[in-house]
């Protein structure tokens, strides 16, 4: 393999191409890169830049062809295999991405750059077991790096190894007492271990530093045995920003999520001509819009996560997106605008529905439908329950009472399995509440 040296003329020309890509001058970059390819047709670095150019131009097929060619030219060069693995992950082809990630690590098992990139691939693919393995290798190669230790502790907590996570977080805090991320992680792990006395102490320190931080306030309430009315925006946004481009595959194929198709069929049955306005609350990656198709009216999506709505925009059926929380969207929308409001798998993060349901009633047109799902809380539980999963469950009788109090007179509630959770069916119910005509 030809490596870069100060006298390497190809490297200098490739740097110019890279600068042009970064500057958005894609036509000039393509012209320059073609020139380099003619003089160095077997240099894999040329094709890795071709991959970046393809991605920048919105041409994933060309990007993949270029990355694959780089690997074919130098199959034992860890850089080309690493870049190909990362690209496949960005394309959502996680099984292939992980195969190449394993190859990259095997080729250079003590290279911190390779290990760090492949940890990212494992995270993207939701393979925390692999991420942990490679993080442990990375920590051995780069000892004393607290950024690596923080990732390691967080993954330990995510797989339920809370005692190990606490030890790891505590080690970071011994060296960096002011590290709020480590202190928050330790408090979360302590709460999961039901050591709420210790969790509250960490929360007190966090809130002393940042009294208005909603995430810290939320965790303090949990550790104190309270049920906060909703999850903080930062928590929800952070969760979905990180999984946006793998979300559809995980939810539909992995968790057997069928609500969008079911609700689209309900909407089409009520509006066979598709002449209607729809508000999709917590639209995510636009699964409802994809199932509904283009309508003769407005389809408006609401979601905190911009990476999620970027995925939804790809369906080319939404007219507009608003990046606000669901409660604010309902509160600030003028009356009598929509024929249908949908909130699928959304209220598990919103919690208290005492304002949401009346606001939905207000902004529906006469005869309009409010269609939403909830996870089920048992009749002997509270009206609103925060599960250890961090999601809210609602008591069916309480939700029905809120709907009738808001003015909905026609109410259909169907109990069903919402999706799989830990290979077990998750019980919930789907509500179709109709505003009087």
From TrEMBL:
TPR repeats lie at residues 78-111. Keywords: Repeat, TPR repeat. InterPro entries: Methyltransf_25, SAM-dependent_MTases_sf, TPR-like_helical_dom_sf, TPR_rpt, Ycf3. PROSITE patterns: TPR (PS50005). It holds the Pfam family Methyltransf_25. Residues 278-368 form the Methyltransferase domain. SMART domains: TPR. This is Tetratricopeptide repeat protein.
